[in-house]
Amino acid sequence: EVQLVESGGGLVQPGGSLTLSCAASRFSISSTAMSWLRQVPGQELDWVSSIYTDSGNTFYADSVKGRATISTDNAKNMLYLHLNSLTSEDTAVYYCAQGTSYSPRGQGTLVTVSS
After folding, report:
1. CB-based burial label for 62 (10 Å; 0-12, 13-18, 19+)
2. Which among 96, 105, 84, 93 is positioned nearest to 36, based on CA atoms?
3. What is the spatial distance between Cα 57 and Cα 34, in angstroms, rounded to a whole number?
4. Cα 61 versus chain centre, distance
5. CA 109, CA 20: separation in Å to the nearest integer?
6. Strand, helix or coil at 29?
7. Which partner from 5, 12, 55, 70 sits 20 to 30 angstroms from 20, CA to CA?
8. SS3 category, 89
9. What is the reported pLDDT for 45?
10. pLDDT (tens digit, 9 = 90+) per residue, 15-65?
């Protein structure tokens, strides 16, 4: 069974930045695309970014384009998402997911952007 564990969330001031991490196990991220999703409480799950690990091609939602960088460390089987220029609209639970669909995904890590 695929395991994905996100970390790196927390309270961040507006304008700040953070890097989210996702530890993958029981499969190799180098063999698949990986994605980040986010969900504002009470709202739908939204796609944020994907990376195709074989080509290195990356894709971003308009809401984070120019402020986000998705990356992997294949040797460590880790996925990352760096976000900068954070605003309150980035407050959400962030999930990493295998592939480009919404499942399987981890339990999420909460990012709160507030002063």
Report:
1. exposed
2. 96
3. 11
4. 12
5. 8
6. helix
7. 55
8. helix
9. 95
10. 999 999 999 999 999 988 999 999 998 999 999 999 998 888 999 999 999
**Secondary structure letter of residue 66 according to DSSP:** T
Strand order in 92-98's β-sheet? 10-12, 109-113, 92-98, 33-39, 45-52, 57-60
Q: Residue 90: name the closest of 69, 106, 105, 111 by CA.
A: 111
What the block records as the tokens of 73 is 């460390």
Q: What is the pLDDT of residues 87-115, one digit of tens each?
A: 999 999 999 999 998 889 999 999 999 99
Structure tokens at 26: 């029981």
Residue 82 burial by Cβ neighbours in a 10 Å radius (0-12, 13-18, 19+): middle
Judge contact between 56 and 36, C-beta under 8 A.
no
Three-state DSSP state, 90? helix
Please report the pLDDT score of residue 41 as a whole number.
87
Q: Where do the DSSP E strands lie in 26-106? A: 33-39, 45-52, 57-60, 68-73, 78-83, 92-98
Structure token digits, residue 103: 């499942």
Cis omega before residue 14 (within 30°)? no
